[in-house]
Amino acid sequence: MNNWTLLYEDFDPAKENLREALCTLGNGYFATRGAAPESEADEIHYPGTYLAGGYNRLKTDIAGRVVENEDLVNMPNWLLTKFRPEDGDWFNLMSVDILFYRKELNMKDGVLSRTVRFRDRQNRESTLIQRRLVHMANMHLAALESTIIPENWSGRIQILSALDGTVINAGVERYRQLNSKHLEPVKSGEVNDDIIYLLVETNQSLICIAEAARTCVYFEGEQIEVERKLIEEPGYIAHEFFIDLVKNKPVTIEKVVSFYTSKDFSISEPALDAVEALKHTGNFKGLFDSHIMEWDHLWDRCDIQVSDNDRTQMILRLHIFHLLQTVSRNSIDLDIGVPARGWHGEAYRGHIFWDELFIFPYLNLRIPMLTRSLLLYRYRRLNRSRLAARESGFKGALYPWQSGSNGREETQQLHLNPKSGRWLPDNTHLQRHVNAAIAYNVWQYFETTGDLEFMATYGTEMILEIARFLASITSYNRELGRYEILGVMGPDEYHDKYPDSEKPGLNNNAYTNVMTVWVLRTAIKALNQLNPKRRHDLQETIELEKPEIDQWQDIIHKMRVVFHDDGIISQFEGYNELVEFDWEGYLKKYGNIQRLDRILEAEGDTTNRYKASKQADILMLFYLFSSEELHELFKEMGYDFDPQIIPKNIEYYLKRSSNGSTLSNIVHSWVLARSDRPRSWNLFNKALESDISDIQGGTTHEGIHVGAMSGTVDILQRCYIGMEFCKELLHLNPRIPEGLQRLMLKIKYRGNWFDINITPEVLAITSSRYRDIIAKICFRGKIYEIKPGDTLNFDI
Fold this sequence. Notes:
The protein is α+β, with helices and mostly antiparallel strands.
């Protein structure tokens, strides 16, 4: 098995949609699914192309109300390339005999290839070899190379090379009742014999999108001239031409495409620049060489190597590959966040949630400038979040659970349960913990990089305004002498209100309350680390005075956390009064109960009645914080927190989770890494299979799960190596499971590169020889100095 390659050696129509998502190519600016070039959207194929941050809003009258949704738009299909013998049918895998099939995603080079040997209805046997790329070095370019070899025949074939802007959003079945036509044609045209262009515009956000395509034909290594016919309709343009084929003589059709929008920097007009780019772009080979060189540079700093298991290595690289295609150095300075499903499909409408909590740790340690840019997506929406807080009657900044173009709350008002066919109210906007996640991401970036300039200019202001909001949603319970947070949802989306209550929201979700205390403490710490002048100016600008900070201190010391059953942290107040769920009975009845909420709603029941979680909630505390940090947090709140209760809490909630989120196995693997390494390793391997095996039973084809992919990588780099950042020191405290024989990676901590090589017996860390800095490493509580080029070896 080649652990750089995702390989399929059969054509399976039932799995093609999944494979298209997994074979998506992108460069952090745009991405195109791995659909067959000859295909159009149907029950088998979905050839989507998506621009990072390319959103549009449409209204729909449904279930008795008008709802508005903002979607990631399916952009014009640049791939569309068809061929057929002069008297035959257009090539279609469903209508030929497949004699050989191989689809291969080469992650090392960032190239998708397909080889098909087939026999048509006239018994003509041919081989089709295709390669494609979305250029990593020049973010506006993509290319497709198609080679056709007639094996037992000679004759003419017809070629159609098109740009199709008539596409709609139809990649998620449960959204198909909603309006989906986002693109309007503007103009199209033929520039010269081989270049065509198409300009369309989104009908609400008014983003202009231009694609230009240059199609050339090569025979025996030389470009040949063909007579072309222009086909032009509103939103669609194509070149059609014929080629004479000679038995066993390959002919290559090369399609190079440029992609520009009105959101781009340094352009005059998208169509003009798209055409101009092609005039100065070389052939496929030149693009191929510069593209794989850029990927080689990326892999040099971003690869993580494990030994003795090719499948683990291959999936790990697949996860890194898709993360780097979602956001790359091309994304720096783009006004984008990281969507939960990548730019790989239309699930969750391309929105940004809290998944960056799982994504940024990998980027912080390799491309910190990219994390910085992605955090600025949140900073640019700070004023919008301040407005949201004011409109809701609170102070500070209220960031949305789902974010898109301008930072308003994009959570849908209604969601469809496909099992019952009913449209239901969506209360997930009450997940206020997304604000704590943003603050956590800012602080983790600072801890990893030491970028005080970012904190002084952007980061501290964000943390302070989030702290303000979280403080303002607390209320003081005089009877208990404690602060409470009422009417929210935690990460577990199975519970959005109390049983038999009409009012959405829950009281004293422990994760939200504890994270609020962490944010308030961190806000004070972030403020105090600024120089006095900047601290004064910032406090004056946002009108933050000492009485407000004193109230934060009071909340820190008096926040309420509810417990039950001798040391179990209650997920929320009243959790212990819920009914135990019949896990065995429902597993026997349904098999897969990951989406238990949909099953119960279809039965007329609700998960709100049961001690049943979709995903980690309380366990997120043990994911984000060490036992020492939690002890300190609870001590500040006035609770005697014994770290010995952590395993008890873990077991309690693991038994009550349906793992309805791909993030569940990530968190569960992490929290078991100290107490039960074999189980942790087993859950890590389950997490690896989340997308490649589509363990949720049919969701990955709508878009990969970037948080889960990044989370698996982070388990290796931070969890199993025991990597933490505290007091300007890199701390290492390994906990290597038996299944992990060797782990090799590079990290960048506070400007210094380190190579880490770890086995179950020894950890070796080498400091880069290119930076004249003596670094300090803390290994299991003891501090060591490491000079440039030196290696420290630790017995573990």
